[in-house]
Predict the 3D structure of the following.
Amino acid sequence: MKVTKKTKNAQKVTPKKHLGQHFLIDTNIAEDIVNSLTNHKNYTHLLEIGAGTGVLTNFLLEKENFFVIEIDKESVTYLKKKYPQLPLVENDFLETTPDIWFQQESFNEKFAVISNFPYHISSQIFFKLLPYKNQVLEIVGMLQKEVAVRLAAKPKTKDYGILSVFLQAYYDIEYLFTVEPDAFDPPPKVRSGVIRLKRNDVEKLDCNEIKLAQIVKQGFNQRRKTLRNALKGLQMNEKVLQSHYLDKRAEELSVNDYVILTNLWEE
């Protein structure tokens, strides 16, 4: 059941304001986000992306092999002063790799990710993590509500999209709860949503994943059209042309449907 988190009787922290950011100040909600991590025994490291003023960090300090990556210089200065022993990497997450995140050459351990995701680049962060799907066993975090709903959306809904397909191929995704604007300082104009992604048992999709990605992207780029029209630019064999999937729109196909359609293309 989706629960809306309110700030009544909650403890609050006063953030250092800069760059027009909206900081989570409700420590009860921060603790709820941290407690949403469930898969502890199956991974060895934990990474927080964009710690900001440390509202999540404060509840993560006791965890083993906990690392933080933060690009904002003011936040880095603040965090270093408040948590001098914290393994903190000052770098751009989108431009680096796990060996940088965890300060370890050729890093190949299993790990989890937690974050109050920067809303303007949250989708980019998930695309960045996807190639490391066999290492990233769990992701917990807060996003703009519309994006969180989209990641967890099921086929045949308006929110189901490209990232829904790519992530749901390898993760079970659960929308946990909604966070209202008054949990932030200053309050944003949007509501937020907290989600959890847990790695499923799919090691590799049973199809050409590059071709599947091409079909998914082109299909959703013209999502109002049937796939027969949306995919016209791709060369189709007779089996594809006869497939009933082409008479559906991109949002109507499950991950498994896309795998089947991709294999028809490859025959």
